[in-house]
């Protein structure tokens, strides 16, 4: 057994001689117990430190893996954005010889579900389509590419707006149901002095001389059900203004939770219908930005005015 004098300082050792043998034994056992506790604590904290070191190393490795995955996703989104941008019309066709055009198109994320395009029917008439695919992001962009292909193919088969939309709906129904997606549709064909349109969930107004004609939008969305669509016709004379837009604009809310509303947008368009379409578009976009708290959806607003022949 180790002597107590071996583990104490000289000054303490002198004081120890004044203690009884029993007291010395109790002190020695307490010292040994404290020493064992220190050894156990030291071993515990050493093991804890090793565990934390291993955990930090693993966390650092996972952080590098996440950074690499994020970079891959960013690159994929950039490519998807480029593809979607390529699918949108870069410049309007020669239909602008009779129409002034202004477009505001903004996706909520890198890629989105709002899609517009210009077409030419089998009979040679120009047409414009505006669509809002449910959802956001890459999935909506893929549906957009699918619908573009369907409409381009359908242009070679039928001519009337009603037939075109019905054909696309029929061809797309099974696929869209399977992926649980749908799309609003606003499809307009231009005649010499009129427009013919099909509207399933979209927004459209025609302004003439201070009067506003709102599109009838009771038809189903594309991809919801197999049902005939209704074709409507409106006169479209020189100076008339046509506006088409998606719900991302009118359903945006301000800080008080109030929606921007189609009534507000239509009134603004009607009040400035005599101005150039680019100026009307600027007013609408500025008014929207001043109202809304933040964007909540993809946004598209298209303005067209018939020029003098």
Question: Could you please describe the fold and organization of this structure?
Answer:
- The protein has 309 residues and is of the alpha+beta class.
- It has two domains: 1-87; 89-306, Phosphatase 2c, domain 1.
- The chain contains seven helices and ten strands.
- A five-stranded antiparallel sheet has the order 1-10-9-6-7. It has a five-stranded antiparallel sheet with strand order 2-3-4-5-8, covered by helices on one side.
- The model has no long low-confidence stretch (mean pLDDT 84).
A few lines on this structure:
The chain has 309 residues and is of the alpha+beta class. Helix content is 45%, strand content 21%.
Instruction: Give the H and E element order.
Output: HHEEEHHEEEEEEHHHE
- When the domains are counted, the total is 2
Q: How many helix segments?
A: 7
Largest sheet features: 5 strands, antiparallel
Cα-to-Cα separation, first versus last residue: 118 Å
What's the level 1 CATH class of the largest domain?
Alpha Beta
Question: What's the multimeric state?
Answer: single chain
Helix content: 40-55%
Unreliable segments (pLDDT under 50, ≥5 consecutive)? none
CATH fold node name of the largest domain: Phosphatase 2c, domain 1
Task: Write down the overall geometry.
Answer: elongated
Strand runs, count: 10
Q: How are the strands of the biggest sheet laid out side by side?
A: 1-10-9-6-7
Structural class assignment: alpha+beta
- Just name the CATH architecture of the largest domain: 4-Layer Sandwich
Q: Mind telling me the C-alpha Rg?
A: 36 Å
Mean pLDDT: 84
Query: Quick one: CATH superfamily of the largest domain?
Result: PPM-type phosphatase domain
Task: Tell me the fraction of residues in β-strands, as a range.
Answer: 15-25%
